[in-house]
Known about the structure:
Layout (H helix, E strand, L loop, with lengths): L7 H26 L7 H34 L3 H21 L5 H15 L1 H8 L1
Amino acid sequence: MEKPPLPIKTKIAAWWMIITGGVGVCFFIRVLAEPGIFGGEPFGEFFQFLLLIIFGPIFIVWGGLFLSGGIFLLKRKRRCGWWLSVIVLSLTVLILIVLWKLVLPPLILIIPLILLLLDRKNFWKIAS
């Protein structure tokens, strides 16, 4: 018996999360690994090292959650995939808006969240 294909909105949201998580982690590590990015010889290197040690693991874990949510959606893991994706996207949008008062990144992340919420019933029927 052949499995029905995933809804297109769910596929788009899953790949969007995978790409966003991978690019976000790679970009953050690349920026922090760039020598002299914070200027000033003694303080700049120490500050850069401190940021890498503190924020590096946080961004790696958060990017891993993005990647995991997208992969679980593609593998049709109904409970962990859909819920993980919705929670991670919602928290990320909330944190970006409330803490950093950013507008563009949350708009980029709202799109897959809306796609997941619109296609919830179809995904849950297929993933059952």
